[in-house]
Amino acid sequence: MAVCAVGVTQAVSTAHAACPLALAVYGDAESEAGIDFRPTTGAATVTNSFKMVLDKGVVLDGIVMWTSGVSRPHGSLMYKCPTGDVTGDELAACTVWQGVVYSADDKGNIALMAAEGTDAPQSLIFPDLGPSLQMSSAFGANGFSKLPWDVFLLKGCQE
Q1: Cα 50 to Cα 88: distance, rounded to the nearest angstrom
Q2: Measuring CA to CA, how many Å separate 47 from each of 118, 125, 130?
Q3: Backbone phi, psi, residue 28, to 5°
Q4: What residues contact residue 43 under an 8 Å CB cut-off, 6+ apart?
Q5: For the ranges 17-21, 64-68, 131-135, 147-151, which has the lowest average pLDDT?
Q6: Quick check: helix, strand or coil at residue 11?
Q7: Among 56, 77, 80, 106, which residue carries the largest CB count within 10 Å?
Q8: Sequence-distant (≥ 6) Cβ neighbours of residue 93 within 8 angstroms
């Protein structure tokens, strides 16, 4: 059996373990939202980059950076951020979710999300994603209407 997503095909069996996180594709069963990872292309502080695609074609840009001190993979989802030289206030205004990103294996063991050079975990957990997105400017009549759940399951691997 194969899983097909936009430009993605991968065997469902043990081949998922061979998919690097930088090429992984995840999906949410509740709202049909999806996550497509992409290589970070040498970013010094960003350990993972991805796009979250919601209904009505709304796309959120996502990054993960490890925090200093108590190390955690801190994720951020942004909607229509300005490009170029932006201020912290401008970034804060377009950030629709942020928090620690967790992963889980096929046995339900929870861990912190790893950097892109590792194998893709079976699922990713974005705590309080739906409630945060519901309060964002991306939600509603001019944006998406189906709120994703916090858990995204591995669906395939980009080729």
Answers
A1: 21
A2: 11, 17, 23
A3: -110, 125
A4: 49
A5: 17-21
A6: strand
A7: 77
A8: none
